[in-house]
Amino acid sequence: MYQGIRHIRAFLNVARLGSFTKSALELHISQPALTVQIRQLEEWLGVRLFDRNKRHVALTSVGRDLLPLLERVLTDLEAVMNAGQELAGIKRGTVAIAALPSVAANLLPSTILRFREKHSGINVRVSDVTAEQITELVKQETVNFGISSNLGSDKELEIEDLLSDQLCVLFPEEHSLVDVLEPALRDVAIWPLILTPRGTCVRTLVDRAVEKQELDISLSCEATHVSTAIAMVRAGLGVSILPCSAVRSVNKGIRMRPIHSPELVRTISIIRKRNRSLSPAAAHFIETLKAVAETPMEHFTGLEFDN
Q1: pLDDT tens, position by position, 17-48
Q2: Which value, to the nearest 10 degrees, does the dihedral of the CA atoms of residues 236, 242, 247, 252 take?
Q3: Which of 127, 205, 270, 291 is placed for a possible disulfide with 160 were both Cys, Cβ 3.0 to 4.6 Å?
Q4: Contact (Cβ atoms closer than 8 angstroms) between residue 57 and residue 50
Q5: What is the pTM of this model?
Q6: Residues paired with 200 in a beta bridge
Q7: How far, in Å, CA of 152 to CA of 136, rounded?
Q8: Closest to 167 (Cα-Cα) out of 66, 305, 271, 5
Q9: CATH code that applies to domain 2-88
Q10: 3-class DSSP state for residue 52?
Q11: Which of 123 and 191 is assigned the larger pLDDT?
Q12: Burial of 230 (0-12, 13-18, 19+ CB in 10 A)
């Protein structure tokens, strides 16, 4: 494309100035090199563009007809090259991400803010959906990548671990759990539970741990959104098990403590379509995401663990 632009630009310059000598000087190339470019363009197009002798240069009738077309072609090619350079230089474009709601609400805002400090021209589009939906969006290439809990392998996906996320129990401050400083799952499971719906990664972890430890649980309510679960805890409907990263802060009247169980740690991973290259903007966003993920969770969520 670059060679084509040079040849078209040479043609337009000679047509405007009516002189090979003046055009060569303006384009900062030798006159023989300019002559070669015009001859090559004529060969590519299969037509003669100029009638010329030692004293005079004039457009042929075909050259006159092609002049406005080649002007538009040059404008379009330059626009394409400029757009490509801006995309490569991360000056414009879009990064599309599918993320778990807890990640979208807590990890991503800080990441986007830091990313935009260097790449203000990039639009970031976030879809906060379930783990199953994230997988489908990544496979369909609707998004550049996903951020989800890694609960299994998939030959169509590349999975890179990002961070570990402990599950916590939330309970009213007057609850009996206040006296259990390091609760295990069996300490929590004896109370009515407010859990996320089946199919969510958190619920899957809880169900697996309950089955492994052969515990009986009483399900009080199911809540998709963290705010709903917290409101249910505050109303005294039970205690809730949620990711520590999903809770912005310990709300007034509610305590929160990590559950000491190795099964209740979810791994948050970056999920990509296998054998697909990331755009420069998406690659830089992931680098920013990794840097933010290394920051203690309390820094960007406002978490205050009750000890």
Answers
A1: 888 888 999 888 999 999 999 999 999 899 99
A2: 20
A3: 270
A4: yes
A5: 0.62
A6: none
A7: 14
A8: 305
A9: 1.10.10.10
A10: strand
A11: 191
A12: buried
